[in-house]
Amino acid sequence: MPASIAVYCKRSVALITPVQVFTALQEADFWTLAESRYIPPFRVQQALGDLKIENVGSGGFLEYALSYRPAPLPQCVVRRLALAEGVHDPALDELEGLHHPGIDRIRRHVKQAKDLVTLELSSMPDQQMTALLASEIARWLAEMGDGMIARSDQTWWDLDDLAAYRRILP
Predict the structure, then answer these.
(1) In the prediction, which pLDDT does 76 show?
(2) Most C-beta atoms within 10 A of its C-beta, which of 5, 35, 80, 143?
């Protein structure tokens, strides 16, 4: 199963454009981030040189495609879903029975979320750079939308005062 990231935003991110996402990625220090993940510099240079973020449909932020190399499919698909108030989110079911100091905070946040943004990474080999780009998009969206991040490895994150990742669970 491909990796995924979900961002539960308490402020809507519906008006964010592909240009804004692209600009945010240009401001990130991918050289340092990639070094800590043992991604070779030539991969960073190649990815940033060929990076594209496109609106898949028409209108506002519903689905964007991120690509940085030729492929039949984009390396990452970013989808936004407006959450209706009072609708039960399956993510809450996954938290049932867990005992951790951050659980109640996560539940409150998910219940208050206005938008859910999912980032689905393709299952192609050699996806380190894709994971890094998706992680930075998720971090930036969480910053813009007062978001909390859930990863497919069952970890939950929010951002500290400097907009850096801070682990909540486990």
Answers:
(1) 94
(2) 5
pTM of the model: 0.91
Distance CA 150, CA 110 (A): 10
Q: How far apart are CA 28 and CA 40, in angstroms?
A: 17
CB 57 within 8 A of CB 71: no
Q: How far is residue 141's CA from residue 125's CA, in Å, rounded to a whole number?
A: 26
Find residue 9's DSSP bridge partners: 115, 147
Q: Which region among 87-101, 124-138, 139-153, 156-170 has the lowest average model confidence (pLDDT)? A: 87-101
Specify the pLDDT at position 33. Answer: 94
E-state strands within 93-144: 115-121
CA gap 4, 2 in Å, rounded: 6
Burial of 62 (0-12, 13-18, 19+ CB in 10 A): middle
Q: What are the structure tokens assigned to 34, written together?
A: 């990639």
User: How many C-beta atoms lie closer than 10 Å to residue 6's C-beta?
Assistant: 23
Decide: helix, strand or coil at residue 38.
Answer: coil
